[in-house]
Amino acid sequence: MGLKPQALRAAVRDWFAKWIYKYYERNLFNQVRRGKVPYHVGLILDGNRRWAKEMGMDINSGHQYGFEKLKEVLKWCWELKIDTVTVYALSTENLSRSPEEVKELFRLMEKGFREILETKEISENEVKVRVIGRLDLLSDSLRTSILQAVDKTKNYKKSKFNVAIAYGGRAEIIDATKKIADSVVHGKLGIDEITESTFAKYLYTEGERDPDLIIRTSGEERLSGFLLWQSAYSEFYFVDVYWPEMRRIDFLRALRTYQQRQRRYGI
After folding, report:
1. For residues 210 and 237, what is the distance between their CA atoms, to the nearest angstrom?
2. Under 8 Å CB-to-CB from 87, ≥6 apart: which residues?
3. Do 49 and 93 form a contact (C-beta atoms < 8 A)?
4. 39 exposed, middle or buried (CB, 10 Å; 0-12, 13-18, 19+)?
5. Class (C level, CATH) for 38-260
6. Taking the domains of the chain in order of start, what are their residue ranges?
7. Which residues contact 108 (CB under 8 A, 6 or more apart)?
8. Model pTM greater than 0.85?
9. Helical spans, DSSP H, in the chain
10. Distance (Å, rounded) from C-alpha 76 to C-alpha 252?
11. Number of helical H runs and strand E runs in the chain
């Protein structure tokens, strides 16, 4: 039994809309790939909780969907051969949320680092994993899974994946200042040797290039303490979708916008 004319027209419209979307996405990808892709992209994963509420779900479900979205976005990055990706997974402020929510976040992160030990994409793309932040604030089991993932990938050289957990930009600067003060007190560093390049060596991200582009989802237009020192000359892109519903075209548009800008570095 065939479709009724009204249902047939709806099916055709749906098929055509999907075809147009795929056509646009493919062209956008080719356009971005031909341009200069940023070396280092920072991602502020915002909107899991609000998305879950609007979808009638519990907050933990939002974090679960956000976790799956991150795996998808990382594949987009590797496909475009972006060298370094740094994600803001958990701020120091986030640790003040309810014990139940923090426990679920720790569980998801522990699951993610365990998957790194087994996922073929990590080894195929030779992704070196690094975790930055005050790791002493994390659970023992999460720290163990982090150390295992970092150790397994320490010799990989093609791509880098940095995860900011229990991280705060001000906390990072304070911790760096304490280390510098200690070096001065013990005669390892002279006052006149403290320069911007010297200071950068004491940050959690020591040895990393500063991010070229920082993308934040959910429509919020602020850094919330993410890489405060390192982002001094980064380009910013704020997209008005929650993290779990981030589409490939949203990501590609961010990269295209970056390519259209002229970076001045304060000059």
Report:
1. 16
2. 42, 43, 45, 70, 161, 162, 163, 164
3. no
4. middle
5. alpha beta
6. 1-34, 38-260
7. 63, 64, 67
8. yes
9. 5-34, 48-54, 59-79, 99-118, 120-124, 140-153, 169-185, 196-200, 248-260
10. 9
11. 9, 6
Cβ–Cβ < 8 Å for 202, 179: yes
Q: What digits encode the pLDDT tens for the residues 15-70?
A: 656 778 888 899 999 999 999 999 999 999 999 999 999 999 999 999 999 999 99
- Catalytic residues, by residue number, are 46, 94
- Residue 14, both tokens: 């749906």
Q: Is 173 helix (H, G, I), strand (E, B) or coil?
A: helix
- d(CA 241, CA 238) in angstroms, rounded, equals 9
Report, in this order, helix, strand and coil percent for the chain, each rounded to 5.
55, 15, 30
pLDDT category at 3 given cuts 50, 70, 90 is: low
Instruction: Report pLDDT for 7.
Output: 63
